[in-house]
C-alpha cells in the first residue's frame, strides 16, 4: 500500500470517518486491480 494511502487511512480511522474509509478502500481496491493484474 502506498505511503500516502496509509497516512490517509490512519487519519480516517482516528477520526472514525466511515465515508472516508469507504472511499479509501475503493481507491485501494482499484489501485491494486490496475497494478497487480
Automatic annotation (TrEMBL):
<dbReference type="Pfam" id="PF26301">
    <property type="entry name" value="spore_CmpA"/>
</dbReference>
<protein>
    <recommendedName>
        <fullName>Cortex morphogenetic protein CmpA</fullName>
    </recommendedName>
</protein>
<dbReference type="InterPro" id="IPR047764">
    <property type="entry name" value="CmpA"/>
</dbReference>
Amino acid at each position: 500500500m502506498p505511503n500516502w494511502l496509509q497516512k490517509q487511512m490512519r487519519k480516517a480511522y482516528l477520526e472514525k470517518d466511515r465515508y472516508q474509509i469507504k472511499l479509501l478502500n475503493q481507491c485501494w481496491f482499484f489501485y491494486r486491480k490496475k497494478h497487480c493484474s
